[in-house]
Amino acid sequence: MGGALLAGWKKRRIAQSIAVIEPAPVKLPAGIKRHATADTLPKSFTPSIIVFAVKPQTLPETLPAYRRFAGGETAFLSIAAGKTLRFFARHLGDAAPVVRAMPNTPAAIGRGIAVACANAHVTTAQRVLADKLLAAVGEVAWVADEGLLDPVTAVSGSGPAYVFLLIECLATAGAAAGLPDDLAMRLARATVVGSGELARVAAEDAAQLRRNVTSPGGTTEAALKILMAEDGLGILMRRAVAAATERSRQLAD
User: Fold this and answer.
1) Measured between alpha carbons, how far is 129 from 60 in angstroms, rounded to an integer?
2) Is the C or the N end of the chain the one with fewer CB within 10 Å?
3) Is residue 212 assigned to a domain?
4) In CATH, what number is assigned to the domain containing residue 183?
5) 55 and 143: one domain?
6) Antiparallel, parallel or unpaired: β 112-118 and 98-102
7) What is the predicted pLDDT for the residue at 31?
């Protein structure tokens, strides 16, 4: 995700100066310098914003090196799942301006969506900057209630996996109905991708688009009677999102 953000910033020429802290040697775009640790940053360097794009479990050992930037002039943007604003306050200090965001993997192609929440110390200018950085790879929404980031994680953060599973299941069902495996997968992939794009550009909502495809007494209606049954896709999806939401809360704890 950090790489996707970096590519988006460079493509849109958002940041004038970027420093990447990465212990392992990595290939970076021209003009961006890698530092093995935050301690090697120049003492005079005061970044406008620091983005934490690391695994959540590494944050407790990562954050102390950045506490020297927590005087208020520098904002902190975290895309680490499950780590709350209170967590960052404990490690960076109560006055640190922190934005917590949950993006998703379609950011890799500039089609992601991120939901962000800021603490009380984030200024208007810092919020605008965080929004600009996140918007480089897709849509951005803001919430005042940090607790909403748990269901956000369940719906959009984990959501791409649900869509990929749908493609798998649709292809498997097509193969079971007699289609060659490669054709079944091609049909499933193209159908989901095309339907997603239609949903993006259409004026109608998803329910109306579904109705547009469904002829009375036709093949689609026969399939939807299964998918929309009391024990069908609707209840399975609610259970899945509830499970992911609960797990997000557990990770925060």
Assistant:
1) 25
2) C
3) yes
4) 1.10.3730.10
5) yes
6) antiparallel
7) 79
The amino acid at 99:
V
Q: Is the pTM of this model over 0.85?
A: yes
Instruction: Domain of residue 248: give its range.
Output: 159-252
Q: What share of the chain is helix, strand, coil (3-state, %, to 5)?
A: 55, 10, 30
- For residues 57 and 179, membership in a common domain is answered with no
Tokens of 124: 């208007």
Angle, CA 43 vertex, CA 37 and CA 44 arms, to 5°? 130
Q: What contacts 24+ positions apart, CB below 8 Å, involve 64-67?
A: 64/91, 65/37, 65/38, 65/39, 66/38, 66/92, 67/91, 67/92, 67/93
Residue ending a domain, choose from 101, 117, 147 = 147
- Per the structure, the count of domains in the chain is 2
Choosing from 147, 175, 190, the residue where a domain stops is: 147
Q: Is residue 107 part of a domain?
A: yes
Confidence bin at 112 (pLDDT 50/70/90): very high
Residue 159: band (very low, low, confident or very high) from pLDDT cuts 50, 70, 90 = very high
pLDDT tens string 205-252:
999 999 999 999 999 999 999 999 999 999 999 999 999 999 988 887
Q: What is the mean pLDDT of residues 174-195?
A: 98
Report the SS3 class of residue 82.
coil
What's the CA gap between 159 and 230, in Å, rounded?
Answer: 22
CB atoms within 10 A of CB 88: 25
**Percent residues over pLDDT 90 in the chain:** 79
pLDDT at 224: 98
Whether 152 is covered by a domain: the verdict is no
Residues 105 and 169 in one domain: no
Token pair listed for 152: 């956000």
**Which of 140, 145, 148 lies closest to 119 in space, CA to CA?**
145
Helix, strand or coil, per DSSP, at residue 233: helix
